[in-house]
Amino acid sequence: MDNLNYGIIGNCRSAALISKEGSIDWCCLPQFDSTSIFAKLLDEQKGGSFEIHPKGDYTIEQEYYRNTAILITRFTDGDNIFELHDFMPRHHKMHGKYMAQPEIIRYVKYVSGAPKFTVKYDPKLEYGLGATKHFVKEDFIASLTHKLKYDTLFLYTSFDKERVLGGEEISLEEDGYFLIRYNEKILMPTTDKMGLELERTKVYWLDWVAKTPDYKKFKEEIVRSAITLKMLTYDKTGAVLAAATTSLPETIGEVRNWDYRFCWIRDASMVIKVVSELGHKNSAKRYLQFIIDLMPDKDEKLQIMYGINKEKTLTEKTLDHFDGYKGSKPVRVGNAAYKQRQNDIYGILMDVIYEQLRNFSNDIENVEELWSITKGIVWIVGKHWKEPDKGIWEFRGDDKHFTFSKVLCWVALDRAIKVAQMFGKTRKLERWTALEQEIKEDIHENAWNSDINAFVQCYGSRHLDASVLLMEPYGFIHARDPKYVNTVKAIEDGLSNDGLLYRYKNEDDFGLPSSSFTICTFWFINALFKIGEEEKALEQFERLLGYSNHLGLFSEDIDFKTKRLLGNFPQAYSHLALIECAINFSKKQKDEQILESIK
């Protein structure tokens, strides 16, 4: 079965996807949302790739160097063995800064025998919209395009450049390297220098992982997911990407193909909350600064999403020359959803502000600005919470009174009240508490459907929606409240399909969804755990982990029938929910061990 059998490498500036066979099939330089240099993922012929083909009958295996973002692809035919160590350099410099250049290093490690391989080096710049020409120079291979826009790329290598570009056979007798760079180098690279970059990058990731708490259960899954989330954060501004790709379809051959290389306030805030729980407060601080910079005016309404460099206009267009992943068109860049109104983002953001103040109160600058944002959020929620919106799933049809949006409006007030109490600002509490109660009563009255004995997708509806499972984690309702327990049971009956969950089953703008949104299954597992069905939750969690790819990575969706991964990849949402589930199971085991030792 075809699957998204890719590894991701990255350095918090950009990322690349490398296939199970060692081919770079997706990369945008100099940053995540730039035009692609390799996009075979979206078009086998016109996308461009960087492939290594061993000569002979080789077995290929792939794994990450433990606790790092360095991907090792091992080629062996028994006697002749070599490895590709792929990474994007990232390491410490002086004064707490990081070295993270727009470049990929492919360190070719000689292991044994006399391996031979050919290279297909075929970058296609600017999404392959114009021809890319290659020139062998004294120090590098230069690739350039200028039909639509001038752009260049440089390849440095220890191997014969003519043979590399010509796809001729190369004999490997010692370690070598390929260095793909967006900018020309001033100092010439050498194999030793590239080996040093590899070691420095290894140390950076090992240091980063060492700050993560030591969980008893699912430690490897937590660490791999945490590294993946880290790779999806953009250092320069603190933005967090939803995923590293565009237009990987939710269903093969359909049109639900979106560009996810942007920062959704909801996804990013949820990621930051989890990353802070893992002890990485610098990411949280940078993200809070990103938000502060986006809200210069007290009356400025927050968009649901922004560009990674704080762009507010994300015009959507299609790349019609690309065939799309497995023929799934259109290929989109930009995302028109930035214009939508989703009232839940204020609660999501307020929750993350509260969590950061609670966890790192002595270490957070800008408290005055955060208090200003808190007051502004309450003002906006007070003014707009009764209005319909597009909801968490970004329906492109009519606005409705979505339950999840209303619950998160309540969360905004609940967390704002807690922040006010932390700051000793009691003057507003009476008015804010009254508004919080009004929203809560409104939800209980209008979102509960007594016919089906559950909270529903939107006011007056009979449709179920997985997002209402978050009522409990956000503190709106207690896990053992009969209303919540009944809602979990109703969702299991109505939305579960062979252990995987639909987001919802009512038709949307594109018909009935035919794949499972991965995060929803994690939410459901968490809900089962919270209502006391812990064994069942654990069993489902372990089964769901089995649907990841060969490196433990998840995309946005899973096909109900084949269990293949679909949608943009790797998906921050899926990995943050995996971590939340794993932490719950791990804490449970720790509590049980403590009880045992007391006995």
From TrEMBL:
Q: Which UniProt keywords apply?
A: Hydrolase
Trehalase-like N-terminal domain boundaries: 8-133
Q: Which SUPFAM superfamilies match?
A: Six-hairpin glycosidases
Biological process annotations from GO: carbohydrate metabolic process
Q: Has UniProt tagged this entry with the keyword Isomerase?
A: no
A molecular-function term among this protein's GO annotations: hydrolase activity, hydrolyzing O-glycosyl compounds
Instruction: Please state every residue range assigned to the domain named GH15-like.
Output: 219-582
* PANTHER family membership: GLUCAN 1,4-ALPHA-GLUCOSIDASE, TREHALASE
- What is the name listed in the Swiss-Prot or TrEMBL entry for this protein? Glycoside hydrolase 15-related protein
Organism, by scientific name, is Allomuricauda ruestringensis (strain DSM 13258 / CIP 107369 / LMG 19739 / B1)
